[in-house]
Amino acid sequence: MPGAPAELAVPGSADGTATSARARRRAQRRAAKAVPRRKLTLRERIRRDRVMLLLLAPGFLYFVVFHYAPLLGYIVAFEDYQPYLGFVDSTFTGLANFAQVFADPAFWQALLNTLEITALQLVFFFPAPIGLALLLNSILSTKVRRFVQSVVYLPHFIGWVIIVSIFQQVLGATGALPNMLDVLGLGRFDAMTTPWFFPFLVTIQSIWKDCGWGTIIFLAALLNIDQELYEAAAVDGAGRWQRLWRITLPGLMPVVVLLLILNLGNILSVGFEQIVLQRNSVGPEHGEVLDTYVYFHGIVDSQWGPSAAVGLVKGFVGLGLVLGANKLAHLFGQEGCTPVASSAARPVWMEKPSALGTGAKVAVLVVISLLVLYPFVSVLATSLSTQADISRHGGLVLFPTHPTLAAYRIIFAGGVVTDALLRSVLITAVGTGCSVAATVGMAYGLSRRNVVGGRFFLLVALFTMLFSPGVIPNFLVVKQLGLLDTYASLVLPTLVSAFNLVVLRSFFMNLPTELYEAARIDGAGDFRILARIVLPLSKGVLAVVTLFYAVGYWNAFFNAMLYVNDDKWPLSMVLRQFVLQGQSLSDTVTSSEAAAPAQAIQMAVVVVSLVPILLVYPFLQRYFTKGVLTGAIKG
Questions:
Q1: Residue 578 has pLDDT above 80, yes or no
Q2: What's CA 477's distance to the chain center, in Å?
Q3: CA distance 455 to 311
């Protein structure tokens, strides 16, 4: 960079010039500390921090417009709101909307369904990552551990539209499992449309998607347990199971309790996207939860007041549970833990693993890996199959006899699928770039402890993790801003993630202070420090944040369903329309192109949606585990 200070690029050079430069900087810092400083006025502090405040501005403006302004929309819960009259002229009704909601049997059924799914997830889903983390931690082979981790982390980055489509391929009426049961003479069982099985189906899907990703925090906690405790126990004659019960589980317990309490704060939220995609398959009586109740009664049926009342009650209950969880977490003395380096070598005090035990562990991990990988293989194979292959294999296609690209030629020949693919690429590229820029700017501004108003800006961002405005207020804000049926409505409402902001800020704060001080002595300003020092040292955590944003924009469909018409649909909405709802693609292709079976065309759309994630994942996988732990735990 022309005009850049020579010492800024290599602050740790080993020659005599660099040594004298370091001595000069130390002398300058000591001299600066010796001189008493007068307290700056607010105007002088603002002038000093003007660059930081400028970097903070986009993120702060986002939180104000899309998180705090919508809270004013909760006044709808106390009105007979009419869109053509507005907030001011609509009739004030007091608590009438709340009385109407509490008298509605559909509300209580939705609440019952929500609590039932939450209970199943706490019983089955919550312990699953703990067990998998213990199993992975017991494997000494680094290659095996890394392979399994790479496999089980992958589903976390796949959107619910794709996952439900994959489960439809495996568990649906014509899927692999019903056909296998039919061959065995047990009768066909359609898990996707059986009402009583729906809570279990949702739980199974959640385990398949997020169990692997959930092991990260528990693996970090396991690595943080003092190894000398195990050595002392082994010397005293404690076996493997005794060490597990006396050291490992108690060492995990603080993290387990903390996460369990925090999960209780989300007891009334069970995943809107996952539920709304499958609600119609089992009917509202069994598939309605509080989030979908608000959407269908508020947005679809225009019952703004009662729906806003449900959202307000849900928000305050969630906030109360989170605050209570925070108090209990402090009672348990929870602090962040920093993972330490793990060694694959067996400690001298550890018993040599038996061949039977090692074989059993590897067999379990192989089965888990196959359960994750099989649906992907089946979807790909089906997309390359002819109708004869699909009929012959009864939906269990793993190796098509006569592979063909007919389905791909159809979806790339033009029409709705190709247009939606191009729109998704554009939305993901623009949205990711804007989100990363806004998040980096705000995180860098908040990473300096003495920036004017820094604590206030941080609290503004953190509070959004405790209380969200809900569907109805957000929709009203987007409508008032004139963003309905625009591509901006697919980017701006989700521009900055408070979680990603905290991760980046924590990482920036953990960079050596000497780097900042040396750069300032050499005359570098805030922008140059960010560009020349902070960003180059933050490649790993930036890869994490970029991946999270890109995957979020690529997989998102709810904002598209809520805000735009079908001529602006991204690929995720096309998946929902043509794969999950079964709408025919015949209108988008010519009769000569329609030779490929409908099931192959649907799976080809799923594969096209998966390809970008599968291409990016291997390159960033080595970054995101370390990046998440460094930012979210160490900070």
A1: no
A2: 24
A3: 29
Q: What one-character-per-residue DSSP string does 588-607 give?
A: GS-TTTTTS-HHHHHHHHHH
Number of Cβ within 10 Å of residue 403's Cβ equals: 13
> What pLDDT is attached to residue 439?
94
The answer for residues whose C-beta is within 8 angstroms of residue 599's C-beta and 6 or more apart is 174, 382, 390
Six token digits for residue 222? 């396991």
DSSP secondary structure string for all residues of 244-313: IIIIIHHHHHHHHHHHHHHHHTTTT---HHHHHTTHHHH-HHHH--HHHHHIIIIIIT--HHHHHHHHHH
DSSP 447: H
**Residue 83 region by backbone torsions, left for phi larger than 0, else alpha for psi between -120 and 50, else beta:** alpha
Rounded Cα gap, residues 63 and 71, in angstroms: 11
Residue pLDDT, tens place only, 530-573: 888 888 888 878 888 888 898 889 988 888 888 998 888 888 88
Specify the pairing of strand 79-80 against strand 91-92. Answer: antiparallel
pLDDT value, residue 391: 74
Res. 593 pLDDT band, cuts 50 70 90: very low
Which token pair is 600? Answer: 């192959």
Residue 345 scores a pLDDT above 80: no
In the numeric block, which tokens belong to residue 476?
């009203």
pTM above 0.90, yes or no: no
Which stretch of 13-17, 321-325, 380-384, 623-627 has the lowest confidence by average pLDDT? 13-17
Strand partners, 92: 79
Secondary structure class of 487 (helix, strand, coil):
helix
Distances (CA, A) of 582 to 275, 279, 573, 578, 585: 17, 15, 13, 5, 9
Q: For residue 413, how many other CB atoms are within 10 A of its CB? A: 13
Average pLDDT, the chain: 79
- Is 528 strand, coil or helix? helix
Neighbouring residues of 93: CB distance < 8 A, sequence distance ≥ 6: 78, 79, 80, 305
